[in-house]
């Protein structure tokens, strides 16, 4: 089942991007680009959610609805 996880992404002074989430405790991902950071964050989120389900912790994430907003970042 797909879930929505909100990420906070910031560019660090070193030039890399850091993603964290208040939705999934322990989610931290870092990459050279936003795309790479999102890919790593997705993998980390899957692993953390899998570990939570094995521990039978409650899943408070919202399932993806038929309609939702998605911020699209477009560079020039």
UniProtKB/TrEMBL annotation:
Q: Where is the DUF1902 domain?
A: 15-59
Q: This protein's superkingdom? A: Bacteria
> Any idea what this protein is called?
DUF1902 domain-containing protein
Species name for this entry?
Chlorogloeopsis fritschii PCC 6912
List the top taxonomic levels of the source: Bacteria, Bacillati, Cyanobacteriota, Cyanophyceae, Nostocales
